[in-house]
Write a structure and sequence with these properties.
By secondary structure, the chain is mainly alpha-helical. It contains 12 helices and 2 strands, in the order ααααααααααααββ.
């Protein structure tokens, strides 16, 4: 369905982009700058090669970073090459990635992606994507079963250094409360929408700091609005939360 949104959506910033002419872009930039003041410039783990990042991100689906990393490390210890993973019995791959959860789904998914890449490219290497336009890279990655917009965006942003704004459950929730997206916009639509309102040079830091805000403050069931550093720009705070701190307790009026 079309995105019910007035801003032109594009993975790449239109030439001459100026955040001053877009209210949501001004808000997004102000929120980004405030989170940098509070959290600092976030540090991403050492970048992985694109194929490694693709597998790691598939493992990350529906689990936390710790379990993802445990499963990825176990997989690499068990199989010395991606060719070995591709050619291994499915049960062996499933056993290796058990810490990530949903191993019965992720194991065959990873093997099928590796097989499809081999069939199409003749080798297991995604370095060729660096020479392709970002829009083409995104569509190429999305062809694989189990690779959605978030997985493709993570590979692009963190491994290929291409403009993309990954949206996980935390960012989808936080962006909705902050008013950076319309209420009915899906997570899939939010990838391109948020890429349109944040300047490309902010993507990495904004992505990571919004996730941190969602995990530590703007939680799903009980957002800690009294501790939030960005209530000044938050629609949820202005329209839903009206309260004061009394005797150390947050009371709604």
């Amino acid at each position: 369905m079309p995105c019910p949104y007035t801003v032109r959506i594009s993975l790449l910033r239109p030439t001459g982009y100026n955040p001053r002419v877009k209210p949501l872009s001004r808000r997004a930039l102000a929120i980004h700058q405030r989170l940098l003041e509070v959290y600092g410039e976030p540090v991403w783990r050492h970048p992985l090669p694109p194929l490694d990042e693709l597998v790691s991100t598939i493992l990350s689906q529906n689990t936390n970073d710790l379990n993802r990393d445990r499963a990825f490390e176990a997989l690499r210890r068990r199989f010395p090459t991606w060719e070995a993973v591709r050619d291994a019995p499915s049960r062996s791959v499933i056993a290796a990635i058990r810490p990530a959860g949903l191993a019965n789904q992720k194991g065959p998914r990873i093997r099928n992606v590796l097989r499809q890449i081999t069939t199409e490219r003749g080798r297991l290497d995604l370095e060729f994507l660096r020479a392709r336009p970002p829009s083409e890279v995104r569509q190429w990655l999305l062809r694989f079963k189990g690779v959605g917009p978030k997985t493709a965006a993570i590979v692009m942003l963190f491994s290929l250094d291409m403009p993309a704004f990954p949206v996980d459950t935390h960012i989808q929730r936080v962006a909705g409360r902050l008013g950076l997206r319309p209420a009915k916009v899906t997570a899939e639509q939010s990838h391109e929408l948020l890429a349109a309102v944040f300047p490309p040079e902010t993507y990495t830091a904004a992505h990571l700091n919004l996730i941190r805000l969602g995990r530590e403050v703007c939680q799903a069931r009980r957002p800690a609005c009294e501790r939030c550093p960005v209530t000044k720009w938050c629609d949820y705070y202005k329209t839903v939360v009206s309260g004061v701190v009394v005797s150390g307790q947050w009371r709604r009026l």
